[in-house]
Write a structure and sequence with these properties.
Structural class: alpha+beta
Strand content: 5-15%
Order of helices and strands: EEEEHHHHHEE
Shape: elongated
Number of strands: 6
Largest sheet: 3 strands, mixed
Strand order of the largest sheet: 1-5-6
Number of helices: 5
Radius of gyration: 29 Å
Distance between the termini: 12 Å
């Protein structure tokens, strides 16, 4: 999704996850969205039907296409979009390898933070010994103690978050593998924004004829 940003779409009042993808099969103009009957009826229409500045009308008579109908038809397309089993298996292997790599990094970082906490504790004891031996003044002791306390707090907070971060990554990658095996489930579970990202990541455009989706092209 990150590799394909959605450009060229003006975010206006009538937004939709199919906006920017639909084209008229008759005149190849892009289709835009509008509403009627107090915002209760949403539909896409061919922009080639309307006269634009410095452009002649196309004479296209493509009928309006209700958004709910196109949503159902796109949902049926997603039901047919399944990655081959060998690709899914390869993705799962790669994702598991990524989890293992992050686990190793977490262990290394855990050891590094623990070592730093021990070093800070030892530094604190040395400061106290130096103060009791009249080797450093009280103001310097307080300043150094404050510095050590801040760094100890920051290091401990990072240490506490390591396990949570790894669990979150494991959940995300496991979910990615499951969605890769079922594109339709991924699409149905997605928010409107995520659906738009999925649509623009997969399709270059989708054509509409007689108010129905009749063809589509992938990237």
């Amino acid at each position: 999704l990150a590799s394909r940003s959605v450009r060229g779409i003006r975010e206006r009042k009538h937004d939709h996850h199919l906006k920017g993808l639909l084209h008229c099969a008759v005149c190849d103009h892009q289709m835009s969205i509008d509403t009627a009957k107090a915002e209760r009826y949403r539909y896409f229409f061919c922009t080639g039907q309307k006269r634009q500045r410095n452009r002649a009308p196309t004479g296209c008579r493509e009928p309006y296409a209700p958004t709910d109908r196109l949503e159902v038809e796109l949902d049926r397309i997603y039901q047919r979009l399944q990655l081959p089993a060998d690709i899914v298996a390869g993705l799962e292997t790669e994702l598991q390898a990524e989890i293992a790599t992050r686990q190793r990094r977490t262990i290394d970082e855990h050891d590094r933070h623990n070592a730093r906490l021990k070093a800070l504790a030892a530094e604190r004891h040395k400061l106290l010994d130096a103060y009791y031996a009249n080797a450093i003044p009280l103001d310097l002791l307080k300043a150094e103690q404050d510095r050590i306390s801040r760094e100890t707090h920051q290091t401990q907070a990072r240490l506490d978050s390591l396990g949570t971060d790894l669990d979150q990554w494991r959940q995300v990658l496991t979910l990615a593998a499951r969605f890769a095996a079922n594109c339709h489930a991924a699409y149905r579970a997605a928010s409107s924004t995520a659906k738009r990202q999925l649509n623009h990541a997969l399709f270059t455009h989708i054509t509409v004829r007689d108010g129905h989706i009749n063809d589509w092209q992938f990237h």
